[in-house]
Amino acid sequence: MELLKDRVALVTGAGGGIGRGVARRFAREGAAVVIAEIDPDSGARVAREVEELGGKALFIQTDVLQKASVEAAVAAAVDQFGGLDILVNNAFVPTPNVLLEDKTDEMLDQTLTSTVKACWWAMRAALPHMRTRGGGKIVNFYSIDVDIGAWLHADYNTAKAAIIGLTRSAAAEWGRFNITVNAIAPTAMGATFHKLAAEHPGFAERSAAMRPLGRCGDPEDDIGPVAVFLASDMSRYVTGESFHVDGGLHLPGYNSRPAHVPVREY
């Protein structure tokens, strides 16, 4: 359909999982895609995949913990393709899954930096280039974990809640530049899913059964199209919104309490 023909998109964390799925879907819709990824092997591999799909690609090694690296990725997109139309903030650096009382300041700093600050840096770096193009599309990533207060993810939940505040603030202020800013709360069969499925027999089946649609999402075919919608002119009158793309998992939610943690402790 080429809904993104002649558009330039930058996707952070595009070397695997949902980021890879979005990058591939964008390529199928005609976009030139910048793969902003810290791992050189996976980043280069996805860039080749994009080109095999007939799209234009650029891999730029990007560390979302470093402001200069994030800004360099945006600059590389503009240098290579002449501008920037679409920004997808997907990457983050995970910390160990431990209880809130065991999370360290260092863990919190890492999560806030790789999630909130990286998103902030990328958006602000993209702004002048989007204004030059007469507008732009920003897609940030939220999480169902915030809604349910997922155990062992206190730092991540805190950061993703902040993403909603940033998304709405930018949507309110940057609408005057014809820039839309929205958020997706996805669940899909990314790297973490496959790791858990390999380590815990039956995990994939139980995960699918929790969703009203009865299946787990595919990064490219289930998450990707929603990202395309938000990155295309189809969503020209949509901004400041957050979308659950999870097969309906947000309706029942889920109990994330670890089995070893008692209900009451004194």
TrEMBL record:
Keyword terms: Oxidoreductase
GO terms classed as biological process: fatty acid elongation
The protein's name in its UniProt record: Glucose 1-dehydrogenase
Keyword Oxidoreductase: yes
EC number: 1.1.1.47
Organism: Pseudoduganella umbonata
Superkingdom field: Bacteria
MF terms (GO), sorted A to Z: glucose 1-dehydrogenase [NAD(P)+] activity
InterPro entries reported in the protein's UniProt record: NAD(P)-bd_dom_sf, Sc_DH/Rdtase_CS, SDR_fam
Family designation: Belongs to the short-chain dehydrogenases/reductases (SDR) family.
